[in-house]
Amino acid sequence: MGVFFNLIGLLTIFPFIPFILAYYWNYRVTRNKKTAIKMGMDVTTFFLYIIVAVLIDLVLKPQAIGGIYLLLFMLIVAIGLLGGAQARLKGQVNMARVMRAVWRLSFVMLTVLYLIFVPIGFVMHL
């Protein structure tokens, strides 16, 4: 069981590793780069949520709300905004499309936050 948790910890600390693994595996199966990139993004987003939440807690200290709660709040707001926009434009909400769009936008947002918080956390804890 310890090896499993060590592997998950490693994949969380270095989120580019799950991206590369998911991309490689999916590309080998489908031979489609576009699908492989999307799969890599989807898998990596899960690990980015974990590490960015930890980094928010680490950088902002306990005085701020927990990082995971902040990220979940932002996720719920994004779902509401995209769902509302889709309802206004199309007259109905396709929840699968909304969730996919939010998940992929989360990848971009979390990657930027990761790239901001990693150097800050590193410098703070030298």
Automatic annotation (TrEMBL):
InterPro entries named among the record's database cross-references: DUF3397 (IPR024515)
Spans traversing the lipid bilayer: 6-27, 39-60, 66-89, 101-124
Key words, A-Z: Membrane, Transmembrane, Transmembrane helix
Protein name, entry field: DUF3397 family protein
Lineage: Bacteria, Bacillati, Bacillota, Bacilli, Bacillales
